[in-house]
Amino acid sequence: MSSFDGLFSLVESTLDSSAAHWLREHVEVPEALLRFSWHEQALHRVWLAEALNLCLLHTLVNAVPDGYRYVEEQARGGRKVVFDHGALRTVDWPHNGELPRGRQAFARLLEPLGFTDVRTYPLTKLNMTGWGYRQMDLPEDIAQFFVSELHPGRFSETFQSAVTRVVSSSRDPLGAEHVSILKRLQLTRHCSLPEAQALLPGLYRAFDRQHGAVLETDYRCLLDESAEMAWIATEGNRFNHLTDRVADLETTVAQQRALQRPMKDSIEVSATGRVMQTAYRACAVTRGLVDASGHYCEHQVPGSFVEFIQRKVDPDTGRLDLNFDSSNAQGIFKMTASKT
């Protein structure tokens, strides 16, 4: 079995064969992975990191119809998408059910996979903070994670009470076996293939909504003060967006607008001028909220979206600029801020 066959077999063990085949046909898998041999008795962490990213990309693309169409169109044009980064939101709050507080719920699984929080990004306008988690074995090749925390302590007491009611029922998707394998990965950077097959589904489930039913009154209360926390109430820790790294963002935008796709009005440009981003507007999803009578009522709320990014080389290092930008991020976050 080749290394890439092994990778997609690992993905298949968490998703299914059709999903693994689709990913192989539509997503660029970095050749740099081959620097790390595929050994079933001692599987390097880069293979798990890439497998997790592929699984998460597949889930988001299938949740965003415009994103799925975009990826299919790219494939028909002879291009595979290049997964640059995925973004998720957490809540910096002590009443978080079984989950560790805020980003720690994800640091505990990303760090054993080789990801390190390389920079902090104040998202002051949103009362949030972001961290860029970069895979240190293959930083330019394996997609990064942009993990943000919302700080309820900066909002009203009414808002804080609603946050507690929403997130206090959160369950922990990681069991004792998962934690044990993660500790081994942290120490040795390797695990066996059977351990990887046992661990990956738990990691995959972590990127989901872990809390229970949400009251409509709580959702409205959160929405009044923070569209981002309202989004967390319905979507949890799912990928808020994933990003395709493109060679020429202006050309991509022109093509998408010509197709009348739901594009953001402008391109966000970092302070350095080396990182440029824009996105589709978030898709609408149907979620159940509990009304005053205790009945589930379906509502249309913002879901996730696909982003596009162009990264230029940093002349000081001669390497691709992998940083994010606080202003860019806050502009992109507005894609889920529509009130429906």
TrEMBL record:
Pfam families: HGLS. CDD domains: VOC_like. Its EC number is 1.13.11.93. Its cofactor is Fe(2+). Keywords: Dioxygenase, Iron, Oxidoreductase. It is an enzyme of class 1 (oxidoreductase). The keyword Magnesium does not apply. InterPro entries: HGLS (IPR009770). Belongs to the 2-oxoadipate dioxygenase/decarboxylase family. This is 2-oxoadipate dioxygenase/decarboxylase.
